[in-house]
């Protein structure tokens, strides 16, 4: 017998969102959790000086260019403007570091501190924009922006890498500045994945345009968490559904295998559309994934869930143990570890 609370729940697999190029452009802003991110609200860990150094370099990078002081008659005896800080001279900043050290916070803080037209999105969102508008159409939309922020520059395909480096090259030549984050520095992108000479040439071209800043530290999401996420029993899961329904909140209820299959039918750029109005995600019978493509789609989905800060409640295997088949030893190790960190935090999150 199905309870009233189960009748009131929605299912992610029933949703088939699509997003147009125009709609995608409108979403190129920081996620809601970073609406008020600033350099002052970033809390550097004193045990890792590179965090403070990164903040100050980005603060200088985002600051308006200082006016030149002119002295004497007709500018004779003019003085050089004093530098606010040792701001990087290249048009791009590349933030490299482990997950959970505040790279996205600093990226959003740079976006908020920069005046003029600007965009903030993930690597997937920018490649999707090119797919929707065509390359020239995407360049036309982005051209003239003072700043473009690219979060999680993690490369799954050498073609996408070449596309993005071409886009960066065309836009930096017209004055646009870039800040990108990744768990892998530019000169190591592709290691353990691709070895084509043209791929490495493209990586070098991108590296030449970016000043790399390494941020050390520990994963802040795990400071108060130990071990894997704890799955719910079937009874606890039913209670969770009932509690959310009683509070007139929206909790989705999906079989894990069905969700994984459904993600293959939705473009990753539209994953955020799956989450509209959702305040908690329920997943039944979580199990280990052994297919790399399925695992990477799940990572992309969880990235959007984390951006929206939607708690997860699940039964079956601990959701932080879903990456099997030696995946944690492969080229996407850092991507999976970041996802596991986010899954652990979301599983422990309170329902708003």
Automatic annotation (TrEMBL):
Lineage, top-rank taxon, reads Bacteria
Classification via InterPro entries: ATPase_AFG1-like, P-loop_NTPase
GO process terms (BP): cell division
Its protein name is Cell division protein ZapE
Question: Which NCBIfam families does UniProt cross-reference here?
Answer: ZapE
Name a Pfam family for this protein.
Answer: AFG1_ATPase
| PANTHER family in UniProt | AFG1-LIKE ATPASE, ATPASE N2B
What keywords is this UniProt entry annotated with? ATP-binding, Cell cycle, Cell division, Nucleotide-binding
């Amino acid at each position: 017998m199905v309870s009233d609370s189960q009748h009131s729940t929605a299912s992610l697999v029933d949703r088939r969102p699509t997003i147009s190029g125009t709609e995608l452009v409108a979403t190129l802003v920081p996620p809601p959790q970073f609406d008020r991110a600033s350099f002052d609200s970033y809390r550097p860990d004193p045990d890792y000086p590179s965090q403070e150094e990164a903040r100050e370099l980005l603060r200088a990078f985002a600051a308006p260019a200082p006016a030149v002081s002119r002295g004497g008659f007709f500018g004779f005896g003019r003085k050089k403007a004093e530098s606010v800080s040792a701001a990087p001279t290249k048009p791009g900043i590349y933030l490299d570091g482990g997950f959970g050290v505040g790279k996205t916070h600093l990226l959003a803080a740079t976006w908020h501190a920069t005046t003029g037209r600007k965009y903030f999105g993930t690597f997937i969102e920018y490649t999707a924009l090119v797919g929707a508008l065509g390359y020239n159409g995407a360049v036309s939309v982005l051209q003239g922006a003072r700043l473009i922020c690219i979060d999680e520059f993690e490369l799954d395909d050498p073609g996408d890498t070449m596309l993005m480096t071409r886009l960066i090259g065309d836009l930096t030549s017209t004055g646009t500045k870039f800040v990108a984050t990744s768990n892998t520095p530019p000169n190591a992108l592709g290691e353990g994945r691709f070895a084509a000479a043209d791929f490495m040439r493209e990586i070098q071209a991108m590296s030449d345009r970016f000043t790399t800043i390494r941020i050390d530290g520990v994963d802040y999401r795990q400071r108060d968490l130990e071990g894997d996420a704890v799955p719910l029993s079937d009874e606890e899961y039913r209670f969770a559904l009932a509690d959310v329904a009683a509070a007139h909140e929206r909790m989705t209820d999906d079989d894990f295998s069905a969700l994984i299959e459904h993600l293959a039918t939705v473009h990753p750029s539209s994953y955020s559309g799956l989450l509209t109005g959702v305040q908690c995600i329920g997943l039944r019978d979580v199990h280990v994934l052994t297919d790399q493509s399925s695992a990477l789609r799940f990572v992309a989905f969880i990235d959007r869930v984390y951006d929206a800060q939607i708690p997860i409640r699940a039964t079956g295997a601990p959701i932080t143990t879903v990456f099997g088949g030696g995946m944690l030893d492969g080229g996407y190790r850092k991507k999976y570890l970041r996802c596991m960190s986010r899954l652990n935090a979301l599983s422990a999150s309170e329902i708003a």
